[in-house]
């Protein structure tokens, strides 16, 4: 179960997988009430660098969990 005291980030490097998931998953209800701090889609260097920099700052403070959800 998700810890409501933490901040969550979602990253999907493949735009096509993310778009396919959006057709099958109601993201609004899935993430309702979850403190989602970041969402990044794509594999370009700038997207990845900004996303992981933001995540690493939260993770270092002990307020982030790293886990993977396979689609």
Q: How would you describe what is shown here?
A:
The chain has 3 helices and 2 strands. The longest helix has 16 residues, at 45-60. It starts with 7 loop residues before the first strand and ends in an 11-residue tail after the last helix. With 71 residues, it is of the alpha+beta class.
Question: How would you summarize this macromolecular structure in one to three sentences?
Answer:
The protein is of the alpha+beta class. It contains three helices and two strands. The longest helix is centred in the last third of the chain and has 16 residues, at 45-60.
Task: Draw up the topology in text.
Layout: E1 8-12, H1 15-24, H2 27-30, E2 36-41, H3 45-60
Parallel strand pairs: 1-2
Element-by-element helix/strand order: EHHEH
Enumerate the strands of the largest sheet in spatial order, edge to edge or round the barrel.
1-2
Alpha carbon gap, first and last residue: 18 Å
Determine the number of helices (DSSP H or I, runs of at least 4 residues). 3
What is the radius of gyration?
13 Å
What is the molecular shape?
flat
pLDDT < 50 stretches = none
Structural class of the helices, strands and pairings?
A: alpha+beta
Beta-strand segment tally: 2
Instruction: Give the overall average pLDDT.
Output: 81
The proportion of residues in beta strands is: 15-25%
Sheet with the most strands, sense and barrel status = 2 strands, parallel
Q: Considering DSSP H and I runs of 4 or more, what fraction of the residues is helical? A: 40-55%
């Amino acid at each position: 179960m998700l810890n409501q005291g933490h901040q969550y980030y979602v990253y999907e490097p493949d735009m096509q997988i993310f778009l396919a998931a959006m057709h099958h998953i109601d993201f609004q209800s899935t993430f309702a009430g979850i403190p989602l701090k970041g969402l990044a889609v794509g594999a370009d260097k700038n997207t990845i660098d900004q996303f992981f920099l933001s995540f690493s700052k939260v993770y270092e403070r002990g307020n982030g969990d790293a886990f993977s959800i396979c689609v």
